[in-house]
Amino acid sequence: MPSALYAVLVTGPSMSPTLRHGDALLVRGGGRAVRPGDIVVGVFRSRPDLLVVKRAVRATDGGWWVQGDNGLVADDSRAYGVLDVRGRVVARYWPRPRWRFRYPRV
User: Fold this and answer.
1) Euclidean distance between CA atoms 56 and 39, whole angstroms
2) Structural contact between residues 76 and 50, judged by C-beta atoms closer than 8 angstroms
3) Rounded to 5 degrees, what are φ and ψ at 79?
4) Is residue 60 scored above 50 in pLDDT?
5) Sign (positive/negative) of CA torsion 8, 57, 2, 47?
6) 3-state class of 79 per DSSP?
7) Neighbour-count burial for 89-101, b at 16+ CB within 10 Å, e otherwise
8) Res 101: pLDDT
9) Per-residue pLDDT tens over the stretch 4-39
10) What are the start-end ranges of the H helices in the chain?
11) Upstream peptide bond of 48 is cis (omega within 30 degrees of 0)
12) Torsions phi, psi for 82 (to 5 deg)
């Protein structure tokens, strides 16, 4: 059975420089398992009303510890705890198309 694909719009600077405010992403719900380094979409257990785009760091407590690529913005697991992943980003289709988002963290 194919996995669902849906679109998400990035808001805010937390994933800069990889993603910027206004980037449009294609997200796959389901599919292969999330791995450290993947960019994912999900909700924090402490903020279930907020859908976020972050980088998966490590699996923990049945969810994922995530961080933004912009170290100056701390609206990630450091502030909100574990994230429940809803999907994995597979492409940025606007404004600069790119198909792979697994970058090693330095």
Assistant:
1) 6
2) no
3) -100, -35
4) yes
5) negative
6) helix
7) bbbbeeeeeeeeb
8) 57
9) 999 999 999 999 999 999 999 999 998 889 999 999
10) 77-80
11) no
12) -75, 140
Q: Which residues of 28-51 are buried (b: 16+ CB within 10 A; e: fewer)?
A: beeeeebeeebbbbbbbeeeeeee
pLDDT above 50: residue 106: no
Residue with tokens 């909100």: 80
**Sign of the torsion formed by the C-alpha atoms of 37, 32, 26 and 93:** positive
Take residue 99 and report the two structure tokens written for it.
């198909």
How does DSSP classify residue 46? Answer: T
- Percent of the chain surpassing pLDDT 70: 90
Distance CA 86, CA 91 (A): 15
Largest CA distance in the chain: 40
**Composition of the chain by helix, strand, coil, percent to 5:** 5, 45, 50
Report pTM. Answer: 0.87
Q: Which of 18, 11, 61, 14 is nearest to 37 (CA)?
A: 18
